[in-house]
Structures are given as C-alpha cells and as structure tokens.
C-alpha cells in the first residue's frame, strides 16, 4: 500500500523501544564517544593553522597606517608576559595567507564522493581510521613544509584535506548500520559535536603553545595525539553490530530490528534518481550555505580578533574558541530535544528537521550582521559572534542528519555529494574574505558578514521549501523491480 502524500514513512513508533536496551556502556554509545574524540582531533588538526599562521607571518608594518583611523584601539589585559620568539617567520602577504588557509579544502573536496562510495563497499572503520591517521602524519610534516616554501605548505595542507575528506561520509555510512531511527539525532550529535570541541580546545591551546613555546609544537602535539587515537579506534570499533565482538545480544537485535525496513540490499547505487532528488538538493543548498559562514569564521576569526578588536595572541585563542564552545553545547542539547520531539511528542521527522535548520541558519545570519555594527564594543562583538555560531548547532539535528532520513543505505554517498558542494565555501570563502579585507577596516568586515548572512538566509528558505523526512523510493530494496 502506498503511503499518503506527505506522510512520514520513517518507522519510528513501530520498533522496539530503547528503554529495554540501556545506553550506558552500550556498543553504539561507545562508538559515538570514540567518534567524538576522532572528530575532536580532526578539527584540532584542521584549525590549528588559523592560530599558528598569526605567529608564522612577519608583522606587516606597512599596514600600520590603517590602524589608528579605522580600527579599534589596542585592547589587551596582559603586560610583559613571557613570549617565545624563536619560531621562524615568513613574509607572506594577505593573498598568500588566503591561499594557504584555503588549500586544505582543495584536497578535502576530491575525496568526498569517493569516500562515501568506498565506505558503502569496504565499511567506514578503515576509511575513517586511516583518514585521521594520514591527516596526523601530514600535520607532523607541516613545519618542515613551511621551511621548504609556500608551495610545499599548500601541498601538505591539500594532502591533509584528502585524508579528512573521507571521514564524514565514512562516519555517516557507519551510522546507517548502527543508529536506530529514534536515536539518530542523539548518536550523531554526540559524535559530530567532537568537531566543535576540537575547535574549542585547539584554538586557545594553539594560542598558548605559540605564546610560551613555539608555533611548530602546535603541529607536533596534535599530530601525535591523532596517531594515538588511531590505535584505539582500530582496536575497539566494528563496522556493523553483527561483527562487533562484545555487543550484547539484546542491543544487536534492537539495532537490527529498528533498521530492517529502512536499508536497501541493492548492490548498485541508483545514481540517476538520487541526483534528481529534490530533497537531496535541499540538503546540498543548506549545507553549502551553512558552511560559508562556518568556514569564513573558522579560518578568519583569529585574524578579526587581532586586526579589528586588537586582542593579543593569548586572548585571541580563548575568545576565538568561545563561539565553538557554545556551538558544541547547542549540538548536544538540540540532538536530545530533536529525538524527544519525534519520539515523545510525535512530531514528524520533516517538521523537526526544517524547524531546527531554520533556527540554525537564520539566527546566525541575524547576529553575524549585528556583530559588524557594534563598533569597538568588545563585549558585544564577542557575544554576537558567539551567539551566531552557537545557534548554528541546531543544524546538526536539522539538514545535517537528513541524509539518514531520506536514504539510510546511501547516507555516506549522500553526505559525500552534499559535502563536496559544502567544501566550495572553504576554498573560496577565505580567499574572498581576505581580498575584501586588505585594509582591515570595520566596513570591509561588515561586507564579509553581509555576504555570509545573505547566503545563510537563502539556504534556510530553500531547505524549508523542499526538504523531506521520508525514506525515498529509490533508496529502498526493490526500487528497480517496479
């Protein structure tokens, strides 16, 4: 029998309830926690260059003429703090810095779709594990590459991107076998919240390392931690509940029975109907739009804090991290709320996804624009940027999990597709922002914030119009037989 038009087909309330299978110490929550640490390190390895770059570049004395008239007065609470100056300095101009910051994404975009496809073939465990392992190795090589020349540094960052490119599709692919529909928001928000936590910890920690030691140790410390994590991941994780060594029988049965109507046994990927699916393009547009703001702030917030608000390196690291701490809290809480609304309040999946995406994209747009108009009010500037990034956390339980709603069997491939488009802002956003802020005036930064907010607004409206919460026809077994 065909379902009613607009009816939510995700089988939520028919399946065994999770109350009989405790979350504490369960295999699925252990996977979420270990994945959380993995994404923690992944983002630490990704953003540490944003802080270290401030210390790697020789101060540009020629731009000092702009400081007095257009930028806020020096704002520093620290005086005569011990400062390490042994790190090598490089004479890279603003455009070169933009290319260095963007180079990571040139590798990252290449492995998105292959990562999703490979994960569906060989499983996500090896792909995710070696993705982070490879990124860690290239992070350790970063100081050497910087010494050899800017071309080498760009190449190493692009290679790091290649390694990280497979990680999100691989994780989505693993969750298609591990996450019961009623616990999707919770489990995915725990694992992906690690990314925000990695930003929270690595930004101030990188600032402190640069301040008291030397910028090279930023790369050595995080690179070594990534390799350590890899050993635990390879030892403790399995691709599916069936192959897990220590999972309880009750938990295995609970997961498998909750997913039995949602997964496809087809070997071939239905590329044509998949790429023609409007709900998929709704996710693509939302993902692209959200990432424009996210990546622009991620790579350039330390620069904004230093050049406009005039915070020193130590304060810069802590204040740049504050927005991501808010975002981390928001991701965890919104994941719990989203599943509560679906399970206990009988909200439809599509309603929850659309509402959370609207909050997570329109909220940040409003506060980001506001941040450009408060002049040198340091407290308000930090507060507005923090609120903007925090509200973005709602998107994890919005469009970000929607891949698993519309096609659980192909979630890794879908994320590869949407993340390919969503990587373009990481490549062009910092370059455009650096080009718009040559003189580092407040007006120039307002333009950067305006562009990001407009793109966010468009993405939110598009998703609200065209998203779906149902498993699509092409994503279930037997589709080709009709």
TrEMBL record:
Coiled coil: none annotated. Gene3D superfamilies: MFS general substrate transporter like domains. Residues 31-471 form the Major facilitator superfamily (MFS) profile domain. It is a multi-pass membrane protein. It is found in: Basolateral cell membrane; Cytoplasmic vesicle, Secretory vesicle membrane; Cytoplasmic vesicle, Secretory vesicle, Synaptic vesicle membrane; Lysosome membrane. This is Sialin. It catalyses: N-acetyl-L-aspartyl-L-glutamate(out) = N-acetyl-L-aspartyl-L-glutamate(in); N-acetylneuraminate(in) + H(+)(in) = N-acetylneuraminate(out) + H(+)(out); 2 nitrate(out) + H(+)(out) = 2 nitrate(in) + H(+)(in); L-aspartate(out) = L-aspartate(in). Receptor for CM101, a polysaccharide produced by group B Streptococcus with antipathoangiogenic properties. InterPro entries: MFS (IPR011701), MFS_dom (IPR020846), MFS_Na/Anion_cotransporter (IPR050382), MFS_trans_sf (IPR036259). Keywords: Cell membrane, Cytoplasmic vesicle, Glycoprotein, Lysosome, Membrane, Symport, Synapse, Transmembrane, Transmembrane helix, Transport. GO terms for cellular component: apical plasma membrane; basolateral plasma membrane; cytosol; glutamatergic synapse; lysosomal membrane; synaptic vesicle membrane. Residues 65-84 are annotated as: Disordered.
């Amino acid at each position: 029998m065909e379902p009613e038009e607009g009816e939510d087909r995700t089988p939520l309330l028919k399946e065994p309830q999770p109350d009989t299978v405790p979350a504490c110490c369960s295999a699925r929550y252990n996977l979420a926690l270990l994945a959380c640490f993995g994404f923690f390190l992944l983002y630490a390895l990704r953003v540490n260059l944003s802080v270290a770059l401030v210390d790697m570049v020789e101060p540009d004395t020629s731009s000092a003429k702009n400081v007095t008239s257009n930028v806020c007065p020096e704002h520093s609470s620290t005086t005569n703090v011990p400062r390490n100056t042994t790190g090598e300095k490089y004479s890279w101009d603003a455009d070169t810095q933009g290319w260095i910051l963007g180079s990571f994404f040139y590798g990252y975009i290449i492995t998105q779709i292959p990562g999703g496809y490979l994960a569906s073939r060989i499983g996500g465990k090896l792909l995710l594990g070696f993705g982070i392992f490879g990124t860690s190795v290239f992070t350790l090589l970063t100081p050497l590459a910087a010494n050899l020349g800017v071309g080498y540094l760009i190449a190493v960052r692009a290679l790091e991107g290649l390694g990280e490119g497979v990680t999100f599709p691989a994780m989505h692919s693993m969750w298609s076998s591990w996450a019961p529909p009623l616990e999707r928001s919770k489990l995915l928000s725990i694992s992906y919240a690690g990314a925000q936590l990695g930003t929270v910890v690595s930004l101030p920690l990188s600032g402190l390392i640069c301040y008291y030691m030397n910028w090279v140790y930023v790369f050595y410390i995080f690179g070594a931690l990534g390799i350590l994590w890899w050993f635990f991941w390879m030892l403790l994780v399995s691709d599916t509940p069936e192959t897990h060594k220590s999972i309880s029988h009750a938990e295995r049965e609970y997961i498998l029975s909750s997913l039995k109507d949602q997964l496809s046994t087809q070997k071939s990927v239905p590329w044509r109907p998949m790429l023609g699916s409007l709900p998929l393009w709704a996710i693509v547009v939302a993902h692209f739009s959200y990432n424009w703001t996210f990546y622009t702030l991620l790579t350039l917030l330390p620069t904004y804090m230093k050049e406009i608000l005039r915070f020193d390196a130590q304060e810069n690291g802590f204040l740049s991290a504050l927005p991501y701490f808010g975002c981390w809290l928001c991701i965890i809480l919104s994941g719990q709320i989203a599943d509560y609304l679906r399970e206990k309040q009988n909200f439809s999946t599509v309603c929850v996804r659309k509402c959370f995406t609207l909050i997570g994209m329109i909220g940040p747009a409003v506060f980001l624009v506001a941040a450009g108009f408060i002049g040198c009010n340091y407290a308000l500037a930090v507060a507005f940027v923090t609120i903007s990034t925090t509200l973005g956390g709602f998107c994890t339980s919005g469009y970000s999990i929607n891949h698993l709603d519309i096609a659980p069997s192909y979630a890794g491939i879908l994320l590869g597709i949407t993340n390919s488009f969503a990587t373009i802002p990481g490549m062009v956003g910092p370059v455009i922002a650096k080009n718009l802020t040559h003189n580092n005036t407040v007006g120039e930064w307002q333009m950067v914030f305006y562009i990001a907010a407009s793109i966010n607004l468009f993405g939110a409206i598009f998703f609200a119009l065209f998203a779906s919460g149902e498993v699509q026809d092409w994503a279930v077994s037997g589709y080709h037989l009709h």
